[in-house]
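Why should sequence recovery work at all? Because a backbone constrains its sequence more than one might expect. Tight turns favour small or flexible residues, buried strands favour hydrophobic ones, and helices have their own preferences. The token representation captures these environments compactly. In the example below, the structure is given first.
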């Protein structure tokens, strides 16, 4: 897997895949069979979408050939399956602008200025772009990217720093445990003394607190931020009304992700509520050469299942291949005959 792009980079590819969840990852494999390269864009810092970020340990029961498979393991296998076709990724960035060029190709620009140019676009964004749920703090926006982050892209950024993590779910607990060995000090703040995370993670975090390697403040929440140019302190208010100020370099509220169409809703696509309308015979959107697969698309009798998205990606790619090469007689070749390139 090619690593994430740097800001303001320009990439050229065959298929621009917006969304690196299971359906986006399977698109890599199906495109590879057509000898097309894919570049995937996702706001999350890792591939896998919800399966990797929200519930990697959740069992999935409707993947053919797997009576049960953990969501995280499914993602790992999809990445391995697509690896021979050398996809590239832009992670931790949101697809912001889409332009269809005069020659029928597409240009997508991300929130950080990364530009991807490709022949076709596949929307595989699941329920949409996952945006962080932000705490209600008056000065929060003023410190975004100046000490306040909602997604941990590179743990090394926090080496030797004072970090406060807010939240009580899996992401908050897991990152608290990881950063305990990286940051100079980690403080976990949660509004309750009960956590929503895996029991093993809760136990590990409590052990770290007992050892003095982290601080754990429960029945409290961060209520204000302060600093000159960058974050330097936060106020923590306890449920009983008592407040305390803590010096800090980073505040990371990890309160989960909320799915929204985001900029996709402004791209001129035909929409059905919060989904993209497609032709059910080929999954093309109202923009020629642009497709939607997985939960983000809508058509009569649509089933929002991962396996349905896999089918949609295969059909859509073969349709687009024929559309781009009308002079060729396109014959689908089975991998049992052709095989798959090895890594």
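From this structural description, the recovered sequence reads:
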């Amino acid at each position: 897997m090619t690593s994430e792009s740097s800001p303001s980079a320009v990439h050229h590819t065959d298929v621009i895949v917006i969304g690196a969840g299971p359906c986006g990852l399977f698109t890599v494999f199906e495109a590879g069979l057509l000898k097309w390269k894919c570049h995937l864009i996702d706001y999350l810092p890792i591939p896998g979408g919800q399966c990797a970020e929200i519930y990697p340990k959740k069992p999935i029961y409707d993947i053919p050939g797997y009576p049960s498979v953990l969501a995280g393991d499914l993602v790992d296998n999809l990445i391995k399956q697509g690896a021979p076709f050398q996809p590239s990724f832009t992670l931790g960035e949101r697809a912001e602008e889409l332009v269809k060029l005069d020659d029928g190709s597409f240009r997508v620009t991300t929130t950080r200025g990364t530009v991807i140019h490709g022949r076709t676009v596949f929307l595989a964004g699941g329920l949409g772009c996952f945006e962080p749920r932000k705490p209600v703090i008056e000065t929060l926006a003023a410190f975004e990217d100046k000490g306040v982050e909602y997604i941990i892209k590179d743990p090394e950024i926090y080496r030797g720093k004072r970090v406060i993590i807010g939240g009580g779910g899996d992401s908050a607990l897991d990152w608290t445990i990881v950063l305990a060995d990286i940051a100079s000090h980690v403080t976990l703040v949660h509004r309750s003394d009960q956590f929503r995370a895996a029991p093993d993670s809760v136990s590990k975090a409590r052990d770290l607190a007992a050892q003095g390697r982290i601080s754990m403040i429960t029945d409290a929440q961060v209520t204000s931020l302060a600093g000159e140019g960058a974050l330097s302190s936060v106020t923590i208010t306890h449920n009983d009304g008592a407040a305390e100020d803590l010096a800090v370099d980073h505040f990371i509220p990890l309160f989960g992700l909320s799915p929204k169409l985001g900029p996709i809703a402004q791209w001129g696509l035909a929409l059905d509520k919060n989904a993209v309308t497609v032709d059910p015979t080929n999954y093309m959107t109202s923009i020629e050469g642009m497709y939607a697969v997985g939960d983000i698309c809508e058509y009569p009798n649509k089933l929002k299942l991962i396996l349905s998205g896999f089918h949609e990606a295969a059909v859509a790619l073969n349709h687009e291949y024929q559309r781009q090469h009308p002079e060729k007689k396109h014959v689908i070749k089975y991998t049992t005959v052709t095989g798959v390139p090895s890594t």
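A few observations help interpret the result. The chain has a mean pLDDT of 90.
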